[in-house]
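Narrative of activities, Objective 1.

The group set out to show that a structural description can be obtained from nothing but a protein's sequence at a throughput compatible with the screening campaign. Below is one input-output pair from the validation batch, recorded exactly as produced.
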Amino acid sequence: METKDLKNVGNFQYGIEKIFDEAADFLPINGTDFVELYVGNAKQAAHYYKTAFGFQSLAYSGLETGQKEFCSYVVVQDKIRLVLTSPYNADSEIAHHIRRHGDGVKVIALWVEDATKAYEETIKRGAEAIAEPQVFQDEYGQVIKASIKTYGDTIHTFVERKNYTGVFMPGFMPWESEYNPPSKGLKYIDHMVGNVELGQMNKWAEFYAKVMGFANLVTFDDKDISTQYTALMSKVMTNGNGRIKFPINEPAQGLKKSQIEEYLDFYGGPGCQHIAVATDDIVFTVSEMRKAGVEFLHVPGTYYDTVGNRVGQIAEDMATLKKLGIMVDRDEEGYLLQIFTKPVEDRPTMFFEIIQRKGAKSFGKGNFQALFESIEAEQAKRGTL
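Output recorded for this entry:
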């Protein structure tokens, strides 16, 4: 299957349906099952995501459950599940991953009906195996998992849980906590972005096309995503039903070091750059996150002098968006609102995007210039531009 670019399809939904016809035959994906981050201190990281992002306690695995190698805290908000994992053993693979990369995404788990078939079909098409299908059982039923390699040290795990009724999966117990702050309105993962080295974007786009049946929804080149100093290129890969979207970024030639190069340097190679999480009320979500101490990129005030002319009438108050630093963009299907956090760890690597879609299916191309200038301003403060 060749990589297909649907950026010129007039009707986006028609394009998605065409992708589905091609992709669903061998790898239907129901959605993102969970995202696992390897972190230096899982207990403290869980508290941060609860306090700052509005997640709630869900499940725990560690010494108390018989797990002697690592502990994992699972936090949940609507359809989003984050698994935060730290090692007990300083010589373990998890500890090595943290030493090299810092806190970051290790596993992007995909919810499928048949994990064994998903694994076999992707291996047959050239995927590198990480873990063969394995059945995990307890009194609540069984979960089947299998994993394949993707860019850098990141892996995809296929999760089949149709015969399981427990809190998360075997090996975990409910995490009872008196501290569960209210939700901040996050609903689901909209997309997850991977950064790869110069010259590797097409390789990984082809991986998702040939191995996983994805299609190229849209391509951005260095004319689309650039400033006076830096640039990048990106291909957005999507599965058949459009529930999984993986933009793949690589650096482009520029006068100074781009955000992608900075990420690769500090992360120690390719990895997940950011997780975009959706909300139905971005003003509420961002207001609450700011109160909880989440830091967002600063958008130049001049951005709002002309954005109204570009996007037309919207339901939100522009003065409120300016105060909160929320950007707006429009495509032929509608408009979207988006904002980006600063990195959520000391290394300038992974961050989050908060996005609200009001019909728009695109990725905020009209905001790229302001976004990149904001990122470059942060790079200049760090001395890495």
